[in-house]
Amino acid sequence: MPEMGDNGITRARRIVRWMLNMTLALVWFVALVSTLVGVGLESVSLARAIATLISLVVFSWLFLRITRAILNRSYATREVVLSGILALALAALGGGNPTGWGFVPLGWLSVAAVGVSRRNAVLLGVGTALVASPIMILAMLQDPDWDGSVTGVVVGVLLYNLLLAAAFPWANRLWVWIWQLAEQAHVGKEAQSRLAVAEERLRFARDLHDLVGHQLSAIAVKSELAARLAAHPDAAAAEMAEVRALARKALRELREAVRGYRELDLVAELGSVRAVLEAAGVDCRLHLPYRDVPPEVAPVFAWVIREAVTNVLRHSTASVCDITVRFTGEEAVLEVRNDGVTPKPVEDLGSGLAGLTERLAAVGGTLTARPNGSGEFTLRAVAPVLAGVPA
């Protein structure tokens, strides 16, 4: 299942709204067919047909308000009550045919039973079947073309209503439940991301305090002592020299700390992209050496992996992604291969690849990214390894 971003949640909400309103479309279909057949056979007057269709428009407006309330996690009690009364009136006014206007109460039930407890949903289903069945039974018994038994009509209509009353509402409840789970997962992921950022800030603050706090405290003490020794130039000069040395040490440690935060960790990045790919439904296969990648190429390879996986998620339809890292005493190679070749030219994949090319050029490496002719797309980064690294 693709990872759910804001656009994914919006699309899921739209799909669920369509599914909820699909029953309304079915109501309109059976009502129109029943009305056209009745007018054609002159069993329904034109005035009566117009009145039922106008009432159906009002019912539809209430129906749409109910589905909107469902997606907003509320229950439109007033609309449910009014549309339920109107649904029974339409069933009676339209003739009550089970496959015609008699279907309207069942369409109403498909959304009225969403957003209530299971017990209330069952009660609504049973109640709708029992109330709508007499209307349908009378309509069928009054049909001059009907020649069946009364018992058969009663049993058939009851089974028909109970079956649909058990199917439509629970199908819609399932759709809404799945959407709510997706939304909760999305909200939980955002909360987790915010927590991770907060924890990183705290760690950064703690590291800065541990690395630089002691040096700055010593500088303050030394500066105060130098001020007291102003009458003794030699001693004051010695103290100020120590202040200068402490300040340089603090600055160096601060730069090292910031550099560590700016550089990506290759091992951490591999774990991160694997989790992201698998969450998006892409099988990620890692082929890694048993030794650590040389430190002079590991950070730039981490940037390449991040950008490559971003392009896989944005621009391909991949189901499998292979990430291979290998190196010798002379060069290190990274390959990211996926089976979802993009129809776009490489130059249309954004400015990320250009930035990676510059990063690799800075360490004497090269970058290539192209389809390989077998339905796969391969990104390959090569960077030299400093002499002395064991093969």
Automatic annotation (TrEMBL):
Domain Signal transduction histidine kinase subgroup 3 dimerisation and phosphoacceptor: 200-265
Gene Ontology molecular function: any one: protein dimerization activity
Entry GO CC: membrane
CDD domains, alphabetized: HATPase_UhpB-NarQ-NarX-like
Pfam family for this entry, one: HisKA_3
Record's keyword annotation contains Transmembrane helix: yes
Gene3D superfamilies: 1.20.5.1930, Histidine kinase-like ATPase, C-terminal domain (3.30.565.10)
Transmembrane segments: 20-40, 46-64, 76-93, 121-141, 153-171
SUPFAM superfamilies on file: ATPase domain of HSP90 chaperone/DNA topoisomerase II/histidine kinase
Coiled-coil region list: none
Signal peptide positions on this chain: none
InterPro entries reported in the protein's UniProt record: HATPase_C_sf, Sensor_HK_TwoCompSys, Sig_transdc_His_kin_sub3_dim/P
Keywords on record: Kinase, Membrane, Transferase, Transmembrane, Transmembrane helix, Two-component regulatory system
Protein name, per record: Signal transduction histidine kinase subgroup 3 dimerisation and phosphoacceptor domain-containing protein
Organism: Acrocarpospora pleiomorpha
